[in-house]
Write a structure and sequence with these properties.
The complex is a heterodimer of chains A (about 140) and B (about 400).
Chain A: H1 2-5, E1 15-19, H2 23-35, E2 39-43, H3 46-56, E3 60-63, H4 72-82, E4 88-92, E5 108-111, H5 117-132
Parallel strand pairs in A: 1-2, 1-3, 3-4, 4-5
Helix pairs in contact in A: 3-4
Chain B: E1 2-4, E2 24-25, E3 29-30, H1 32-41, E4 46-51, H2 56-65, E5 76-80, H3 94-99, H4 102-108, E6 112-117, E7 120-122, H5 126-135, E8 140-148, H6 149-152, E9 156-160, E10 166-171, E11 185-196, H7 197-208, H8 216-227, E12 230-234, E13 246-248, H9 252-261, E14 289-291, E15 293-294, E16 299-300, E17 302-304, E18 307-308, E19 313-315, E20 318-320, E21 323-324, E22 329-330, E23 335-337, E24 340-341, E25 346-347, E26 352-354, E27 356-358, E28 363-364, E29 369-370, H10 374-380, E30 382-383, E31 389-391
Parallel strand pairs in B: 1-4, 1-6, 4-5, 8-12, 14-19, 17-20, 18-21, 19-22, 20-23, 21-24, 22-25, 23-26, 24-27, 25-28, 26-29, 27-31
Antiparallel strand pairs in B: 2-3, 6-11, 7-13, 8-11, 9-10, 9-11, 15-16, 30-31
Classes of the chains: A alpha/beta (about 140), B alpha/beta (about 400).
């Protein structure tokens, strides 16, 4: 687990919270993003995402929308309220949520694909924006 | 979107039990009636009223007086208390109030969103504002009125170019920048904002990501000057007097002055224009009446230069330059001058009242004097800088016979 590997809180390692209800996708994102050099933490729904955001203060959040308990759009609003400087990337199989005003609050909107290049690019951009703004 | 969440602390004790937009005005109205009447008279029939503090009497007034919209025609007036969709906090500022309610905009998906205050008094045809907004292809149009430099310190002040595009904006500036060629006046924001819906949502969300007061005047407009087409629209007053009428009732004294204007022979604010009706809720009550005519004894019902609402009885008493809300009862030998008496106030015999605001359901005992000795008044009541006495709703004075 990346979690154990990076214990010791290396300041240069960015923490990314991945919020995803499908287990196999969580495993995929964790592996791929750990390989990119991130410390990856996971949540299974919006409610857990809020809790993890509060406890672990991730540098960025990758957020699915269709999830049980609390969906990604509600979680996004709540993350924005409590941690407004944390960049959030929506990562969903559907483009239709672009019509929801709350989705406009995300730093990027990525349509899920087996190729994670776009997600990784948007994540890198969001994190570097955060750095230049001194977050 | 009518912002009706302000606490109105400076109007205390009138806001002790009610939100500022629900404060009675001019005998039969509440402050919010003027903004809502503007909407109705401008053909705007999709209205969300965003409430917050002490909204009970406001919500009740809107239900009783403003249930005139037909949902079968897609008209609505919704009273929306804080939804707490995203936070347990109350609204942090005007922009936060909109952010917390973007879901209601999402359901409606309007092209334009008009943001109004529920506690201003003026007559505006919002269609003129909308026309100007479209002509300029603006993202935001701010209704502005010329205001004396001194007043501008508590308002938003805009600077514009020759095309009315706003080039500078300061909220409550210490040194308001006067208009070119008129050192006495500033171009002041009336708190009336017309936005393209998409622009509004985008800017409000951006603002939520910054450490700010989440206020349109302080944060959103100054920033938008750099990024959007922001225009000023010069207020065209439907009141049609020589001086444009717009009041942001900030203090008890300004509240009193705006009321007292209405009992002038020729008031600045015209309530009698049938072309611009002001709607409110009125209970069914008997007509106002006076009683007794006994020259020599002083027991004559006399009412001079005053507003008398329905259900009032002035019985053998004298009322001068005052506003009587519905069902005020003034008993014999009492005198009322330069005062505002709200619903169900009863003034017993020989009482004398001068320069006072008496909120609802207060009984003034026999021979009581209010407004005649400021030391005594100060011990019992709120007394303003100008010496105006304010008695809160339902306050018990001495036992009355």
């Amino acid at each position: 687990m990346g979690d154990t590997y990076f214990k010791g809180d290396d300041a240069t390692v960015k923490t990314v919270l991945v919020v995803e209800d499908h287990k196999h996708e969580r495993i995929l994102y964790e592996r791929e993003l750990t390989a990119e050099g991130y410390r990856v933490i996971l949540a299974e729904n919006g409610r857990e995402a809020l809790q993890k955001t509060q406890e672990e203060r991730p540098d960025a959040v990758v957020l699915d929308i269709n999830m049980p308990q609390m969906d990604g759009l509600e979680a996004l609003g709540r993350i924005l309220e409590a941690h407004h400087k944390t960049p959030v990337i929506i990562n969903t199989a559907y483009s239709s949520y672009k019509g929801s005003f709350m989705s406009w609050a995300a730093d990027a909107y990525v349509i899920k694909s087996s190729d994670l290049t776009e997600l990784k690019d948007r994540l890198r951009e969001a994190l570097s924006r955060g750095e230049t703004e001194g977050v | 979107m009518v912002l009706a969440g302000g606490q109105g602390e400076r109007l205390h004790p009138l806001t002790k039990d009610r939100a500022k937009p629900a404060v009675p005005f001019g005998g039969i109205y509440r402050l919010i009636d003027f903004t809502l009447s503007n909407c109705l008279n401008s053909g705007i029939r999709k209205i969300n009223v965003l409430t917050q503090y002490k909204s009970y009497s406001l919500a009740r007034h809107l239900r009783m007086g403003w249930s005139v919209f037909n949902s079968e025609l897609n008209e609505f007036l919704e009273v929306i208390p804080p939804q707490q969709r995203y936070t347990e906090r109350w609204y942090q500022g005007t922009a936060d109030a909109i952010f917390q309610n973007i879901y209601s905009l999402e359901l409606e998906r309007p092209r334009l969103v008009l943001i109004l205050s529920g506690d201003h008094i003026y007559k505006m045809d919002y269609r003129e504002l909308i026309r100007a907004h479209r002509d300029k292809e603006a993202g935001l149009t701010v209704a502005c009125v010329e205001a004396p430099v001194n007043d501008a310190r508590r308002l938003g002040v805009a600077q514009v170019d020759n095309d009315s595009r706003i080039t500078g904006f300061q909220e409550k500036p210490l040194n308001p920048q006067p208009m070119p060629g008129d050192p006495e006046h500033c171009l002041a924001s009336m708190g009336v904002y017309l936005f393209d819906c998409g622009v509004l949502v985008q800017r409000v969300i951006e603002d939520m990501k910054t450490d700010s007061d989440h206020d349109f005047g302080k944060n959103i407009i100054p920033r938008m000057i750099e990024t959007d087409r922001v225009y000023a629209w010069n207020f065209k007053d439907e009141n049609r007097k020589t001086v444009k009428y717009w009041r942001d009732i900030g203090t008890l004294d300004s509240y009193y002055d705006a009321n007292m204007d209405l009992v002038q022979i020729d008031p600045l604010f015209n309530l009698y224009d049938e072309g611009w009706p002001v709607r409110t809720y009125q209970h069914q009550r008997p007509p106002a009446k006076t009683a007794f005519e006994e020259p020599g004894t002083g027991r004559t019902g006399n009412v001079f230069n005053s507003i008398m609402s329905s259900g009032c009885i002035v019985s053998g008493a004298t009322v001068r330059r005052s506003i009587l809300s519905p069902s005020v009862f003034v008993h014999s030998y009492a005198t009322i001058e330069d005062s505002i008496l709200m619903e169900n106030v009863e003034v017993h015999r020989h009482a004398r009242i001068r320069r006072a605001i008496i909120d609802k359901q207060v009984a003034i005992p026999e021979e009581e004097e209010i407004g005649y000795n400021s030391d005594i008044d100060r011990k019992r009541f709120t007394v303003t800088e100008s010496g105006l006495v304010v008695i809160p709703k339902g306050m018990s004075l001495r036992n009355t016979p």
